């Protein structure tokens, strides 16, 4: 493998000869032919000033001289990455995944580490939205490896993605631990980046709710909303920067094109916050429901659901629909509640166990209130099976109480006592959040 000095020298010589220049013509007026000869032989690395001079004389960039990567190619890849981010922010996660795959492969080949990490993060976000949680976890773990030396705000999206993947598979305590640890590190290190905090606070709402830490969830939601950026028509602004970048690229103004792409990427990251802000509307709906303001709760939850549906975020939508179905049930609109909850039963134990378990619980309540005892028991038992490995001790204890009450009213006292004892065991489980000793990472599923 050639060292950097030899590589630079060979590129200078190749480009000089392509232009039909002598060493004297390249050197004048700032350097001597002898200096050019020494550079081309690889015996010295040019200074930054010399590199800028040579790049200008050879109609190339300092980046191409030092790395061998054509500056235009690197910028074109950044443009392709921005296009993939636009597709994910405003279009199809499936189409975006294909674009991110191509960018990830090309950036890895060219050694563009930051751009490769962005592409891998995009693949993780696509996998989350399409419900492929195992693949999402792999992508976010890879992104964390690529960003291992970067400051925490740069790694926040990977941490958040990994935590959400664990949450959606029912591993609540570990998801909570990942997010709390990152928030704590940001808060104590002086790196309290607003965008990173919005991502982390919004993501921690779900595990807090499922684990019964309602006050923490409400506080996280308010903090996220207070930090949310206020962008006027961000998609339009981002599109403008993309088009400006294309114009600069066509004119050979590589640095200006890169600057415009950086602005577009920042806005597309802000657009991605729409998913997280939908979680905050969901949290507000939950708070209204807890206060008995069911009409307000329904409005907030429908807003959150519509935002998530527009993004085709199936599992996140399910998270909201569990709460919406419960509100509809409490309003006496049983048929609508059963219809909403029934659509969630397709979620299996690996992909949305918590939400499928919540749907079975709601269908059990509806069946019980309609006098359909056998159906209610069946739904409660299925809900218990789905939630047992999640660590949602409050939900499990509540289900055992519901099942125990149902069994007792039907005269099955011993079975009811067993259900109550099981529920007391869940209720006595120490800790509802993970501040303290971290739990072990959940085992990865067997291939």
Automatic annotation (TrEMBL):
Record region (Disordered): 426-447
Domain HTH cro/C1-type: 12-65
Pfam families the UniProt entry points to: HTH_3 (PF01381), TPR_12 (PF13424), TPR_16 (PF13432)
Gene3D superfamilies: lambda repressor-like DNA-binding domains, Tetratricopeptide repeat domain
Positions annotated as TPR repeat: 117-150
GO molecular function: DNA binding
Regions of compositional bias (Pro residues) in chain numbering: 436-447
Keyword line: TPR repeat
Superkingdom field: Bacteria
The name this protein goes by in its record: Helix-turn-helix domain-containing protein
Naturally occurring in which organism (per UniProt): Streptomyces tsukubensis (strain DSM 42081 / NBRC 108919 / NRRL 18488 / 9993)
